[in-house]
Automatic annotation (TrEMBL):
Organism: Flavobacterium ginsengiterrae
Annotated Basic and acidic residues bias: 77-87, 105-114
Keyword Transmembrane helix recorded: no
The name this protein goes by in its record: RRM domain-containing protein
Domain RRM: 1-79
Gene3D superfamilies, per database record: 3.30.70.330
Pfam families: RRM_1
Cross-referenced PROSITE patterns: RRM
PANTHER family, sorted: HETEROGENEOUS NUCLEAR RIBONUCLEOPROTEIN 87F-RELATED
Length: 114
């Protein structure tokens, strides 16, 4: 089972997260997501556990736990459908032209009277 872990303290290491989950069973992998430019944690990650019942017990007991003063969120990770993934182009309005060529105010559009 792939498990989402959110609201992590930025100082937590993958080894610490692995240790927390290994108390409930076998852990295949741990990945804390980091910013690709700064290398700093984004405050969430994923843990993979092969045994679903052990993974569910970890989710039930760790969700809402306080780690380094932060209440973490732990739940089963569900893959997003392809249509819901964000791309950089979807963040803009359709008519954003950067302000150039917009004839707003005065008679800027009528330049025949120099």
């Amino acid at each position: 089972m792939n498990i989402f872990v959110g609201s992590l303290p930025f100082s937590i290491e993958e080894a610490d997260l692995r240790e927390s989950f290994e108390a409930y069973g076998t852990v295949d992998s741990v990945k804390i997501i980091t910013d690709k430019f700064t290398g700093r944690s984004k405050g969430f990650g994923f843990v993979e556990m092969p045994n679903d019942s052990e993974a569910q017990k970890a989710i039930d007991e760790l969700n809402g736990a306080v780690v380094s003063g932060r209440t973490i969120v732990v739940n089963k990770s569900e893959p997003k459908p392809e249509g819901e993934r964000r791309s950089f182009n979807n963040n803009r309005g359709g008519n954003n032209r950067g302000g150039y060529g917009n004839n707003r105010g005065g008679d800027r559009g009528n330049r025949g009277d120099y």
